[in-house]
Amino acid sequence: MQNRTKIAVVVRDDLAAWQRLNVTAFLVSGIAARFPETIGEDYLDASDVSYLPMFGQPIVVHAAEAEGLRKAREKAVTRELAVAIYPEELFAMSTDAENRAAVRTMPTEKLALAGLAVYGGRNAVDKALKGLPLHG
Fold first, then answer.
1. Are 8 and 129 in contact (CB under 8 A)?
2. How many C-alpha atoms does 11 have within 13 Å on its Cβ side?
3. How many CB atoms lie within 10 A of CB 20?
4. Can you give the pTM of this predicted structure?
5. Residue 122 scores a pLDDT above 70
6. Angstrom distance (rounded) from CA 44 to CA 64
7. Which residue among 21, 49, 83, 91 has its CA within the 20 to 30 Å range from the CA of 14?
8. CATH superfamily, domain at 5-128
9. CA 24, chain centre distance (Å)
10. Dihedrals phi, psi of 109, to nearest 5 degrees
11. 6 in helix, strand or coil?
12. Strand-pair partners of 8
């Protein structure tokens, strides 16, 4: 059975590999925190060792240039999807409090996004990110 909802991440295509992975990890944590129903059950191996649960659905990762990220954010907000953002300034921060304080100083039109994540109805997510290539 196909999921009715979708999790998608868009990372800026000019970031270093470590930055893309870092941004992706931070962004999806917001979806897990806000939507606990997206998380599956604990994993158990054959020796009965327990492991943390993960998302119960696939995550699609796209790449985009800065303008593509800006447009994707705008479309996602217009479609009332849940959106997590990662402005490039956060690479210089060390704590969650610093991150939130930095974002609070930035007007929407000045956000220099390194990435974003969206969650919502499958069709709405697809339309918001239409035309963005999958991360290669």
1. yes
2. 22
3. 20
4. 0.93
5. yes
6. 37
7. 83
8. Bit1 (3.40.1490.10)
9. 6
10. -70, -15
11. strand
12. 60, 118
pLDDT digits (tens, 9 = 90+) for 7-57: 999 999 999 999 999 999 999 999 999 999 999 999 999 999 999 999 999
CA–CA gap between residue 84 and residue 99 (Å, rounded) = 13
Give the H/E segment covering residue 62. strand 59-64
Find out whether 8 and 31 touch, Cβ atoms under 8 Å.
no
Hey, what are 130's tokens? 């239409």
Q: Alpha helices of 11-133 — where are they, by DSSP H? A: 17-34, 66-78, 96-104, 122-128
Choose among 1, 4, 32: nearest CA to 124. Answer: 4
